[in-house]
Specification:
74% of the residues lie in helices and 0% in strands. The chain is mostly helical. Helix 3 packs antiparallel against helix 4.
Length: 148
Amino acid sequence: MYAKCGSIEDANEMFNGMNTRDCVSLNAIISAYALHGEGNRALSLFEDMKEEGFSPDEITLLAILQACSYTGLWETGLRLFNEMESKYGAKSGIEHFACMVDLRIFQKPSIYQQKSISRLTYALENFSQCVHVIGEFDIWQVSCEMFA
């Protein structure tokens, strides 16, 4: 709640004052740092989470991918996305793919400006490339139906 109201410091203070932590509280603080553009801090908490014996889930990984996207950590985001299922047993969903598209856009923001195309068009183009690379064509079909 504090983070959504703009006070990451208060959110962190509440988190640090907790007697026990769980996946929900860890996901909340990781997401808070991601939303505030502090990707490296979110990644640090992600590492702490694993060291404390918690298993990252789809929500955790979405928050981490958002953190990478918001702070331009392309390689880290791509690595974590590729490890989702094999290392963490987490299934990637449309939200995870959207983060990958964002990462691609922010990797080279001038590309869509030079091509004189809209950001949405560029996002969809990259989304289709991501889907093709990983072979998840069902997600592409669902996405197309959403825009139809």
